Amino acid sequence: MAIRVLLVDDQPLLRTGFRMILEAEQELAVVGEAGDGLQALEQVRALQPDVVLMDIRMPRMDGVEATRQITGPGRDGPAKVLVLTTFDLDEYVVEALRAGASGFLLKDAPAHELVQAIRVVAAGEAMLAPSITRRLLDKYAGHLPSGEEPVPNTLHTLTDREVEVLKLVARGLSNAEIAAELFVSETTVKTHVGHVLTKLRLRDRVQAAVYAYESGLVRPGAQ
């Protein structure tokens, strides 16, 4: 079945461009468009998309609040949110991730990256590009813990290996890259990631990465 995509952006020309790119792919179907957050909520309820391609700064309701309502406890469907951004709006991207977005992508990303990001998010994974993640977190290094603060009690529920995996997730590594780094199988990595998410009550890898930095487990710029 085709992945159902809803386009949300207040610029009609951008929506048209995205539609042309996505409709060229057999496994993707653009089911609707919205010009602001309120329209996005209405369209999500009416059309039940799999993935919402979400702009951040829009009239009436911005993408952060729309994301929060789409992915929140009382949500109407299983829609995942993929945020589109420019680096002028970094602070809003961080808020969108906290609100429940499954990842983010630059508006000027190549067409093949946009298509792949939608596939990844639709499959239930997080779109956490390492280069973008590091740039975002380095920019906000002054607002994040230094790493010298007491470790949150919740981290003590993790095994040493799970803490290792969490640190690598925070660096934006994929399961395959983590497996290579730790000399274990991808299946083992998936198991560890699952345990981390369950123990820390996190939804996905994006929330895990944000948690790792906000808790001080990982410092911006650290390798």
TrEMBL record:
InterPro entries: CheY-like_superfamily, NreC/VraR/RcsB-like_REC, Sig_transdc_resp-reg_C-effctor, Sig_transdc_resp-reg_receiver, Tscrpt_reg_LuxR_C, WalR-like
DNA-binding as UniProt keyword: yes
SUPFAM superfamilies for the chain: C-terminal effector domain of the bipartite response regulators (SSF46894), CheY-like (SSF52172)
Response regulatory domain sequence ranges: 4-122
Record-listed 4-aspartylphosphate modification sites: D55
GO biological process: phosphorelay signal transduction system; regulation of DNA-templated transcription
A GO MF label: DNA binding
Residue ranges annotated for the HTH luxR-type domain, each copy included: 151-216
Source organism superkingdom: Bacteria
Pfam families in the record: GerE, Response_reg
Keywords, sorted A to Z: DNA-binding, Phosphoprotein, Transcription, Transcription regulation
Name of protein: Response regulator transcription factor
